[in-house]
Each structure stands twice: as structure tokens, then as C-alpha cells.
Specification:
Elements (H helix, E strand, L loop, with lengths): L3 E5 L2 E4 H23 L4 H26 L1 H6 L7 H5 L4 H18 L4 H26 L13 E2 L3 H7 L6 E2 L2 H20 L7 H17 L10 E2 L4 E2 H18 L22
Helix pairs in contact: 1-2, 1-6, 2-5, 6-8, 6-9, 8-9, 9-10
């Protein structure tokens, strides 16, 4: 593991931040190229992607704090601590916030909603996959102890201090599990995008596939802040996973509706001011 890519005395460049940035740039680049292919305005697609990223960062932090609210309510100063700021947050909080902000932007600029979500789904999966490599390097989002031969033993005191990582015990590499899931999802979604027969097919597949996988991966997670619901029956993440699976299935059930024709791209004279 490598919590900091470079260190200069007391200053360091977190590996997680670097990997997350790489994932965001690659994912957004793919999204914009797919948007151009579908006749969507590339400038506004960039703006939409940037808005989604910023909203996602805020949403991930908010859900991270909410799911461990008893701790932060007793220690409000920790909300803005270095450990909280350096944490990646909770992906689902970022996803929900990004979808909400994107929905507002798409309505304002008359983007076709389901088609645009289809365009962005593969890039989301790829960016998330690369970000999970950053989690592995940082030691956060770790799994439960295991006797399996691929269990990973963390040893960084920095990771223990910042993320509470269990040291000296083989753990499920849940970060790598999720990396493999999202990398596979990226390949499946990109393949499906080129063969889709209705708007909403790709984002529906993403919601179903990731929600299904994440529900079961939660049984292997051991980092704090899981947010138990319904008297401990489900974690907060599992509850959102169930909702994602239902939403993805619902989008596929409406597949008999024809796809709308591609809108002509907005070029000269179009309002392409940045967010």
C-alpha cells in the first residue's frame, strides 16, 4: 500500500487523490466522446461532467458524515479534520448527488435525459474502477479478516491513523474486488452502448449490475460507518443497492418505448458557457 505518492516533509500527495483524478479525467473524456457521437453538444457535455464531479465529491462527503453521525455529532470539529477531508467519502452519496445535479442541468439545457445518462454510464464505471485502486493504496474501504490466499495484510500506520485500517491481519481486498467489478461493468456497458435498442438501456444495466454486486460486497466490508438500517438487517449502502437494482430493472421493463432521434449538436451561437 502507498497512502502518499510523494512526500516532502510534512506535506504529501495522497495516492488516492491522484488515482481519483485520473479516473475522473479518463471517464469524462470517454463520456464526451460518446456524447459527440450521439449528437450532443460537446461543450455542454464537458460542463455537465464537471458539475457531476463536483456534486459527487460533496455528496460523497455528506453521506460519509451522515452514516457516522453519532461520532461527528459528538465531535463536530472532526467534520473538517484532515482525516475527513482526505477520505474518499461514500460512492453512493456522490452518485445520488451527481445524478440530482445532472438532472437539473439536463432539464435546463434540454438534454435528452435517458440518452445522456446512457452516454455517461460507461465513464462512471471506469472512473470508479480507477478510484478504487486509490482506495487500495490508501488502505480505506477495507474488508473483513480472511484466511483466503489472496488476503492482503496492511502495515501502514498512516492508513491506520487516517482510515482506521486494520493492520497485521489478512483482509479481503474489497477495493480490488470492486475494481474488477467496475472494470468488467465498463466493458459490458461500452459493448451494450454500441448495440442498445432503447434509451435508458445502458444506465439501467449499470444501476442493476453495480447495485447487485455492491449489495453482496457489503458483507465483506469491515470499515466503519456502514450505517445499519431496519434493526441491523441492511446497511445504508445495501438499501441504496436494492433501490438501484429496482431502478435499473424498471428502465429495462420500459424498453418497448422507441429511442428518440439524435438531437443535432449545438455549435456556433450555442450557449456553451462553463458551469
Amino acid at each position: 500500500m502507498l497512502p502518499f505518492l510523494l512526500e516532502f516533509g510534512e506535506f504529501g500527495i495522497p495516492t488516492y487523490g491522484v488515482m481519483a483524478a485520473i479516473g475522473l479525467v479518463l471517464g469524462l473524456t470517454i463520456n464526451v466522446r460518446l456524447a459527440e457521437r450521439e449528437g450532443l453538444n460537446p461543450d455542454r457535455s464537458w460542463n455537465l461532467g464537471i458539475l457531476a464531479i463536483l456534486s459527487g465529491i460533496v455528496g460523497a462527503k455528506i453521506l460519509f458524515i451522515v452514516q457516522d453521525w453519532s461520532y461527528y455529532a459528538a465531535n463536530p470539529g472532526k467534520i473538517f479534520s484532515l482525516a475527513t477531508l482526505q477520505s474518499g467519502g461514500i460512492f453512493y452519496g456522490g452518485l445520488v448527488a451527481a445524478i440530482g445535479a445532472s438532472f437539473w442541468y439536463m432539464r435546463r439545457h434540454r438534454f435528452p435525459l435517458l440518452k445522456t445518462f446512457d452516454v455517461f454510464a460507461p465513464g462512471i464505471a471506469l472512473g470508479h474502477a480507477i478510484g478504487r485502486l486509490g482506495c487500495f493504496a490508501a488502505g480505506c474501504c477495507y474488508g473483513k479478516p480472511t484466511d483466503l490466499p489472496w488476503g492482503v495484510t496492511f502495515s501502514s500506520e498512516v492508513a491506520h491513523r487516517l482510515a482506521g485500517t486494520t493492520l497485521g491481519v489478512p483482509l479481503h481486498p474489497t477495493q480490488i474486488y470492486e475494481f474488477l467489478v467496475e472494470l468488467t461493468n465498463f466493458g459490458v456497458l461500452l459493448w451494450l452502448f454500441r448495440r442498445r435498442s432503447f434509451d435508458g438501456q445502458v444506465i439501467g444495466a449499470y444501476l442493476f449490475l453495480y447495485g447487485f454486486a455492491r449489495y453482496f460486497m457489503e458483507f465483506l466490508r469491515d470499515d466503519p460507518g456502514r450505517g445499519l438500517l431496519f434493526h441491523g438487517v441492511l446497511t445504508g449502502t445495501q438499501f441504496i443497492s436494492v433501490l438501484m437494482v429496482i431502478a435499473g430493472g424498471a428502465l429495462w421493463l420500459r424498453r418497448e418505448r422507441p429511442r428518440s432521434p439524435a438531437a443535432p449538436p449545438l455549435r456556433d451561437g450555442a450557449d456553451s458557457s462553463p458551469v
